[in-house]
Amino acid sequence: MKEVPFSVFLAPLFMLFELVQLFAAERLLGVKQILAGGDPRQKGPGEWVSALWAGAMLAEGAWLMWMLTARPTRLHAICMLLIWLVGFGLRHNCPLKRVLVILTLEGALRLGLMLSLLGSAWRAL
């Protein structure tokens, strides 16, 4: 990476979002909820939280699309989009007990890619 695109500097914000998402997934779909037999679709977050969450996910998707336009960040963006799409497909077709595992793995992979992106940008500065 010879020059650092501006979109890279938003990575810490989305890394924070990914961490919050991991903690929220554990709270809503965690082992205690699974053992208790609770269904998170019946007792989920409120409307405002859900709306903010959906907005943050759309913003992350828009950020990934923006990163596709810059050559130095294109590979990271493609990988994150593929992880997002494969994770969605797996979560959609698996039992509720496996969703937390898939969400955790998906979030960890995206966090790793964002950290790699920041490392590449740091070396280029």
Summarize this structure briefly.
The chain is an all-alpha fold and 125 residues long. Helix content is 76%, strand content 0%.
* Order of helical and strand elements: HHHHH
Instruction: Specify Rg, calculated over alpha carbons.
Output: 16 Å
Query: What general outline do the C-alpha atoms trace?
Result: elongated
State the end-to-end CA separation. Answer: 9 Å
Oligomer: single chain
Structural class: mainly alpha
| Number of separate domains | 1
How many β strands by DSSP?
Answer: 0
What is the helix tally? 5
Helix-residue proportion: over 70%
Low-confidence stretches: none
Chain-averaged pLDDT = 87
Percent of sequence in beta strands? under 5%
* Major sheet details: none
Features:
125 residues, mainly alpha, 5 helices
Your description of this structure?
This protein is an all-alpha fold and 125 residues long. The chain has one domain (6-124). Helices cover 76% and strands 0% of the residues. The chain is built from five helices and no strands. The protein has helices spanning 11-29, 31-36, 47-68, 74-92, 96-124. Helix 1 (11-29) runs antiparallel to helix 5 (96-124) and helix 4 (74-92) packs antiparallel against helix 5 (96-124). The longest helix is centred in the C-terminal third of the chain and has 29 residues, at 96-124. The chain is elongated and about 50 Å long. The N and C termini lie close together (9 Å).
